[in-house]
Amino acid sequence: MSYASMIVAFVTAHPNLAYGIVFALAFSEAVPLLGAIVPGSAIMLA
Fold this sequence. Notes:
Number of helices: 4
Low-confidence stretches: none
Shape: flat
Distance between the termini: 14 Å
Structural class: mainly alpha
Number of strands: 0
Order of helices and strands: HHHH
Radius of gyration: 10 Å
Mean pLDDT: 75
Largest sheet: none
Number of domains: 1
């Protein structure tokens, strides 16, 4: 199971946390060091 599919499955199971998860992914991509590791835009579009 890939990283992106695990996140999508978690958001599907917990829809009330979706905005917070999207915010955390966008924030982690905006930080220069984390942005190189975390593909936030690819996960948000999944």
